[in-house]
Each structure stands twice: as C-alpha cells, then as structure tokens.
Amino acid sequence: MPDLPLFDPPRLNDGLPALPPRLAERVTPLNDRPVAADGRYVLYWMRTAVRGHDNPALDAALALARALGLPAFVYHALDERYPYASDRHHTFILEGARDVAAELAARGIGYAFHLSRPGHRGPHLKTLAGAAACTVTEDMPTAPMRRWAEALAGAAPGPVLALDTACTLPMRLVGRAHDRAFAFRKATKEARALRLEEGWSDVAPPGPAFLPDLPFAPMDLASADIPALVAECEIDHGVGPVPHTPGGSRAGYARWADFRDTRLARYARRRNDALDRTAVSRMSAYLHYGQVSPFRLAREAMAKGGDGAEKVLDEMLVWRELAHVFCRFTPDPDSLDAIPDWARESLARAEFDRRDALASWETLARARTGEPLWDAAQLSLLRQGELHNNLRMTWGKEILAWTPDAATALDRLVDLNHRYALDGRDPNSYGGLLWCLGAFDRPFDPPKPVFGRVRARSAAVHARRLDPEAFRASVAAPAIVEAAGRAPPIAVIGAGIAGLAAARTLADHGYAVRVHDKGRGPGGRLSTRRGQDGTAFDHGAQYFTADDPRFARFVESWVDDGVAARWEAPVARLAAGRAEPAPPRRRFVGTPGMSAVIRHLAGDLDVAFGRRIGSVEAAPDGGWRLVAAADEGDGDEPAEQAEIVLVCTPAPQAGPLLAPAPELARAAGAASMAPCWAVMAWFGDAVALPGDPPPQAAFVEDSPLAWIARDSAKPGRPAGECWVLHATPAWSAEHLEETPEEIVPALLDAFADAVGGSLPPAVGARGHRWRHARVIGPAPGPDALFDPALGLGAAGDWCRGPRIEDAWLSGVALAGRVLGAIAGTAPVTERAHLSPRAVKPVDL
Q1: Listed residue (15, 123, 142) closest to 84, CA to CA
Q2: What is the DSSP letter of 788?
Q3: Which helix (H) or strand (E) holds 138?
Q4: How are strands ordered across the β-sheet holding 606-608?
Q5: pTM tops 0.85
Q6: How confident is the model over 380-427, as pLDDT tens digits?
C-alpha cells in the first residue's frame, strides 16, 4: 500500500459541482465563498501553466463551466511589478503567450492577454473576477504568487480555486515538507507512479470560444512587436533576452524532442560535464513558466527507459517536486528560517570567521571577483540566462565566503539567480539555493571556517575537474552567437552617464562596444576640477539621488566599493537672508569626487577620448561610418565603422548626429536644455551660511544663484573652504556669451547677498560655462530612442528628466532596445515560430 492517499479531495465551496477525481485532488480552495449567483462565466487566471494542454487548472475551469452551464475563458496578464521583472523574463513570457494564444484559438477557447505598461494599466483582474461565478488559477508555492492569489481570493465575490499544475503527485497530498530527498522519494514513489500511469486527457470546452466585455483591448500577440512592447514597460532593461532560448511550447517541445531522441540515453554518464551543453536537456525555463507539461515529459522519458531516463525522472519527479512541496509547506523560503536548525546555528557561529575579502553586489553581478571559475559561472548566468546545475552548486557556496553572514549570502544568491536565470524565481531554484546553505543535506564534521558544518565546495577545488578557461570560452560570447553565429560591433558616442550605462550593459552581455568622447578624460557634468594648490570642486552635477530601484542597487553597491557615499550634510532653502531646512532627500556623491563614478563606469570599457564625432554616415558595405569633426585634424585617418551607433550626447549635439534617422533627430530637437554658469571659489576663512546648525549647501531663491555648496564638506574631499556656485538657468542664458572674468565677480556678489552681505576674501575663483546643463523639457516619447531597421539610437537625460538617474535609466533602456532588437532577428530554427506568419494552430 502507498504511504500517501491516492485520492483526497478537499471540500469545495458551496454551489460548486464535483470535479473528476484527477482534478479534485489538485484543488486548494483559497476562500470559502459560495458560487456567485449572478456570475456570468468561469474565469481562468493563467499565470504559471502557460499551455493549452495537460493543464489541470484549464481543465478544471472548463469542467466547472460545463457543469454550471456557463462559458469559460482565459485571462492572461503580464505586470511590471513581479520580482526581478526584466526584458529577459518579459520576452520569454510574451513568446510563450503567443504560443498559448494560438493553441487555445485552435481548441476554441477564449483567451485575452493584457500587458501592463504606461497608458495600459488598471485593476482588470479584479474587474473580471468580480463578474465571475468562480475563478480558477494555479497553485504556485512562491511568495508573490501566493500573495497575489490570496489577495484576489479576498476581493472576489465567488470561489477562488488554486490547482497544482506542476507536480505529478499533488503537493497538497504530500502534506508536509521533507528535508531529505531519499525520504521524499520513498514516501511518494508508489502514489506518484500510479498517477503517471493514468496519462492525461484534456477536457473539451463547454461551447464556442467566449470572451466577455473586457475592460481593456486584448493584445493581438500573433502580430505584436515583442521587443518594442517590452521597451515600453517600466522594468529592468539591463537584463537582455536570450536569443538561443525563445519562449513558448513549440520551442520547448522542439528542444525536448531533440534531447529525448538523441541524448537522453547518455544523460546519466554525461550530465555533470559543464563543458558539454548538449548533455543536459536545458528544459528548466520551460518547466518554470509551465510552457511544457512536466507530466508529458515524464511519460515520454518513462517510455524511452534506460539509465538516462531513470536519472532524468529522478531529478524531475523527486528533486524538483521535493522543492515544490518544500516551498508549499515552508512559510518563508527566502529566509534562513528555511534551512535546518543545525545549519543555521553553525553558520551563525561561523560569522566570526575571517573572510579574506567581501564582494559588493556589482562585483558579483558583473563577474569581477577575480576567481576564474566563479566569474565564468556568473557570466553564464548573465549572458546565457542559464547555469549548469553541477556548477551552480559551487557558484552558490562560494558566495558565502564573500559576504559577511549567511543572511546576506542568501540575499545575494536569490538576487543573482532570480535576476539572470530564465528558470529563476521557481520553487526548484530555492531547492538548489538553500542546498548551498545546508538544506536537504546533512552536517559535515569537523566544522570548517566560514561554512561551519555546512558542506563546503570551493571553486578552486572544482577547477581541478573543470578547466575555467575552457568553460569561460564556452559561455563568454553573447547569446546571439549561439543563435546566429555573430554579434554586431557597436559604437557609443558620448562618455557621460547615459553613454557609459548603455555601453556597460552591452559589454556585460558580451558585445564589442567602443565609446567615443570629445573630452580629454571621463567626467562631463560629473567632472571634478582639481587645482595645483590641492583644491577640488564638483563644478557640474552636485549630487545624485537613487529613487528608482533599478538605479539604487548600483548606487548602494558603489557605496560598498567606496566609489560613492551618502552626503548627509544639512541642506537649506535661502530666501532674503533666512534659511529653512530643505525637504529631506537621500543624496549621494562620488568619492573622492563626482568624477569617481564616471571613472568607475568607464574603467573596463574601450573608450576613445579626445575624439569628437562630426557625423554618422551610411557605410557603402552596410552599417555606419563615424567621421571625426573637421577641427579634429585627423581627416586622413580612416573613419571607424560599426553596425549599430548609439548617440548619448546632449540633445543639441545629438540632433545633427542623428540626421540619418529624421524621426530621432526631430525628437532630439524637441528637448529643451538650459545653460548654467558655475563659479568655483576658495577662501582662507570659513563662510557661514545662516541657520542653526549652519547648512553646508542651499537652494537660493530671488537671486541670480540657484545653488551654493561647500564642496569641501562632501565625503572624501580635501579640507578647506571650497565653494561651488550655480547660477539660475535664466541668468545663465542672459549672460551666456560673457567671459568668466565678467561672470565670477557678479556671482560672488550674489553669493555675499545670499549669506547676509559679506564674505571673507577669496583666495581664488574660476568660472565655467555649461551650455547644456539641465533638461527643462524632455523629449516626448520613450526613455530611449532606437530605430532597429537602421541600427541607430539615442539616449540621455533629455529623454527622461534632469537627474543623473534619469540619464542612467535612459542609457540602460537604450541598451535594452538594442539587445531586444538583436534577439528578435536571430535566424535560428527554434525562433521560426516567432514570426507572425508562422503562428498556426498547434498540434501538441
């Protein structure tokens, strides 16, 4: 007799008809409300079983609709607010949605897809559930999925049912989490085998395809421009799509069939060889998003038989389902509470062990630790969206040695895995990540430094059986190379924040990028002017904020690395000689000067300084020629060429460079920017601003000055009385063509007036004119401009707003447009189904 019940149906909500046993045992009611008497349909909220076959949630919705005499339809939506939302995940999900739309249409089942983005947001799920007799969704045991389903259950007038669509043996029947795979395997073996033998037959729809009146216009996925849609969404554009792994059931089953028929037999022997990517199925992303049926894969592996199939089934049915059950019955798998007591206690004691070095988030994310095998593994995640499972364990354990404690290590593990891996955020991810900290394992004695009694597994030891250079070579190329055989060279014009953000994002994905800048070195408006007398001034941007989490995680990492620091000095508003505290803000500055941020960003890029590009011209053999300005004196040198050119200069300079793309040039011309005169002054005695305590900087009202700051009060600056004064845009425009010798005394007089009428004698003062200092009217439209047909684009603060983080986000958005466009043109067999003309009824 099996240890688990073969069938244990829950008590369904009042008014719900009985479901077939194979469906009923998978149901978890999320509320106790009776069937809504005035409900007009049965709603299936599709989330994590994005397929029109072998889908218990879809079948339950169709069966309930038939029994209730109502129509049923599928609502599928993609929001911007899910954890780690990025171009990579969004693209894969949208490609999967395209397939399921075609499949459901072929079956005569109504389907409506909604993509949340600016101008297309709203509580549509709540509206649709409000008119439903009952709502069905999937039982996915990860925190956000559970939270969102429970929120809907609290708001819906009728029953909300969650069905297990991922596990052969329903999670609810297992009843509790198991801490070891062998115990789970033994306890569930017979009950699972009986369910596998049953096979699966899809429930027929209750009638013709049905859609109610919708509160949105459903998207036509067959003709949708997925890269352009993804670019509209407010998500992380710095994590690009993976061209060699397109989403959708067709691509997933094509990959599975190839593995099943040609390599499954040798899987048991070859699966641990990380250099042989053909030895593994690479199906985890498709399983994570439910685009292929785990039931079908298991049945087909069983039919094949042999050692390889036996190992695949053990991983799919034991280790994978063990992790799902663990997450289902563990309150918080994201915390150390999820690991065994012995591991948590041992790791807590090991916090006092010496770490040779700590690594910031950015150091880890960009694979810059200096440990060859670990960096290669992280590159695989960053560029390929996947990591060989055998190496993922070593990758995960090594992080413990670079973080101050186990809680930080787990945060880093979750972040890096979920952000970059296409199979991230899955219960199976937690199984692997928590194993790195002792879950599903036994204690190893005697305790070791840093790891305590948790099994250690260093990258250096792993490198004895896996050549780091060979592995890096296998994963370091951009993903497009595996898909299309080559990557286009890219040029970026402008080494400011936007240009460097775009260039670094593309370079991190493996693309050859060259940056061109007219300056003698990095800086621009983030320059730091240093004098021979030891003075230093941030005469451009004074500080930056980090309100957007997509930028904030980099800033926090820069603080950890000493590239930036919080500037917590009091800031006031000055008017008529009186000071009032300015509204509190989290302000950051580069250390030891603002230019430190630019130097950090440019540090590992190919940047050609002192080269002003005068025009971008079409090359005879395709792509673009970057022609130096006539006054550069190098007209005899051959112009550089690139297939893609990204212009990241101030809008007035960008317009002429964008002339080959008139629409982009017009957009740049629509942006308005204001000038700013700056004065750098240093004094022998202290300058006192009014206020108690005296502020170190102030916004000035009713004055030619807009801003004054004691620059030497910022973190990391040399001691002294160094001040920066910024004139207002209007005053700067009025005096734009005057000389510094005329500007300096005028603004020093305004400074004296602002602080009460007198200043100590100035030791020295210099003026600097910023012609394009501040955006006062961004160009209408998206955060970045890109014409994929031409391979020409632009970014800058003038696309978004006046702040440093606006420039950063615009640059990253431009890189995202490029990555999406490149991925969308990959001419590989697996991508054939993405052509709108290729979308036909699916035979699955």
Answers
A1: 142
A2: T
A3: strand 134-138
A4: 606-608, 513-516, 490-493, 644-647, 792-794, 785-787
A5: yes
A6: 999 999 999 989 999 999 999 999 999 999 999 999 999 999 999 999
